[in-house]
Amino acid sequence: MPYKELDRHKMRFKSLRERKNKVHIEEDHVPPTAEPRALSDSGKKIVRETVERLVTAREKKRSRMLTFGAHSIKNGLAPVFTKLIEDGWITHLATNGAGIIHDWEFAFQGHSSEDVRANVDRGEFGVWDETGFFINLAILIGAYQGLGYGESVGALVEKEGLQIPSEETLKYTIKESVESDAELAAAAADVLAQVRAFNLEPGWMRVPHPYKRFGLQSAAYRLKVPYTSHPMIGHDIIYVHPMNHCAAIGRAAQRDFLTFANNVTNLNDGVYLSVGSAVMSPMIFEKSLSMAQNLAIQADWHIDSHFMVIVDLQESHWDWSQGEPPDTNPDYYLRYNKTFARMGGTMRYLSADNRDFLLTLVQELEKA
Q: Could you say which of 3.40.50.720, 3.40.50.10690, 2.40.280.10, 3.40.50.2000 is the CATH number of the domain covering 8-165+202-365?
């Protein structure tokens, strides 16, 4: 007997306008000129080393990748990230599904971050129509167009709308491409299913984003800097909404992962920054580096001179330049540090607030 699934169409959704939020981007955004709190002496040394490595990596046209958790966006740091890509210091941004959601909500309505405890109790956590509808629809259309997850949402924000294909166009695409391009046929079928389920009118769907000047995704899309998302099914509030179609999520996220991995192939003499991402960043990096090494070894070389800076709040009492500690040491269980310590190259760990690290970094780069 098959498992019984929950029917999301039976749920009652509320407008995002009704939600109380904790962060308001106009008041809470962090400009690149804001004064950071002073880092420790070792932290300042790591920042200086990072600046030197970024300068060298840019001169050599190597990858400069910045992977971050959702709190960096919730903390209002999008203007700082935007400064880094505008000035050419960072060539790839990567985050998780929550990072995409907060950035989109800021661009769409200017505020984000709900009260999880209270809203779960009321059956309202994540049950917000616009967030679930528009982000899922953007990914659905983007996957059909061959875009990645982050790129799809960035296009929605920057263009302030979506082009909805007609049923006739989708049916024609399925019929004509099923033999020559089965992936396109399947993506068209995904869109067709949701166009019918939600009775979507073909043509341009206008979706204003009055606060998109604070949107990192739109800035990355405009500047043509890869901004990839690396989600996990069920981890984010967009999965609550019936517009969610996980086949499309998979198509777009696969493109993002392979884009990420491709940029890791150019990481020799490059820089990898991991800021406040204890799970996603180390997990996708170790697989991507293994794939990149596989290809490099076939070409008779090896990725050895990559520079990794890991930033998180957790204090560590181990010198990670000496490798990983024994399993009798509590620091052994700082999983993200242990993972990066196994990745070759040079690793530095800095215990600091993401705001203080990123502000210090962007201001030191101004002097470089």
A: 3.40.50.10690
